[in-house]
Design goal:
Helix content: 40-55%
Strand order of the largest sheet: 3-2-6-7-1-8
Distance between the termini: 22 Å
Oligomer: single chain
Number of strands: 8
Strand content: 15-25%
Largest sheet: 6 strands, parallel
Radius of gyration: 16 Å
Structural class: alpha/beta
Order of helices and strands: EHEHEHEEHEHHEHHEH
Length: 185
């Protein structure tokens, strides 16, 4: 799916459905490291476990380029009930993103807030949050890497939720297509 972009904006919204935490850390680590090597800023909004794993995958001395936040705490700042609030999201995540873009020119972000919502049974809230990220991408120069545990999709009775998640991303970079294969083919 292509996102509408202003001529001065370049937005990439990737998704990966992962089997293990280690494979996630390897892919996200490579994604963020390549940005750090070119002077980009990085934002990591993840669980404590994944932040620790990612810190070990990033180049030494990269901390000056990185903002690390807890996914659950950040999510709590803009949720109203079971839905993300656009205004609060803009004030928390949007302003932080723009500050990093102003400092570095371009930013790479990894977020797993959507996975927390999905895992809690709030698929509607997760898709709404993905769309809020897309709104930020319409006017801001950044790449976003989202990730969902594959197990959350393997137990579903149909592929519709998988396709709904893929539809709000510009690219599915998963190496494993088992959800699609099991449910569609």
């Amino acid at each position: 799916m292509k996102h509408k972009k202003k001529s001065d904006s370049h937005f990439q919204h990737l998704v990966q459905f992962y089997k293990t935490d280690e494979s996630l850390a390897n892919f996200v680590g490579a994604f963020l490291s390549s940005g750090i090597e070119t002077g980009e800023g990085c934002i990591i909004i993840a669980t404590a476990k994944h932040r620790q794993q990612l810190a070990r995958k990033l180049p030494a001395g990269a901390n000056k380029n990185i903002v690390m936040l807890d996914a659950g705490s950040t999510l709590a700042q803009f949720m109203i009930g079971d839905m993300p609030d656009a205004y609060r999201f803009e004030k928390t995540v949007g302003s932080m993103l723009r500050n990093s873009i102003q400092q570095y020119g371009r930013v790479r972000a990894f977020g797993e807030m959507v996975a927390l919502l999905w895992n809690a049974g709030n698929a509607r809230g997760a898709i709404a949050l993905e769309k809020l990220w897309n709104n930020l991408g319409a006017t801001n120069n950044f790449s976003l890497f989202c990730a969902y545990p594959l197990t959350d999709f393997m137990k579903l009775p149909s592929a519709a939720p998988y396709f709904e998640v893929c539809a709000v991303h510009s690219q599915d970079i998963s190496q494993n297509r088992s959800v699609y294969t099991r449910l569609v083919v």
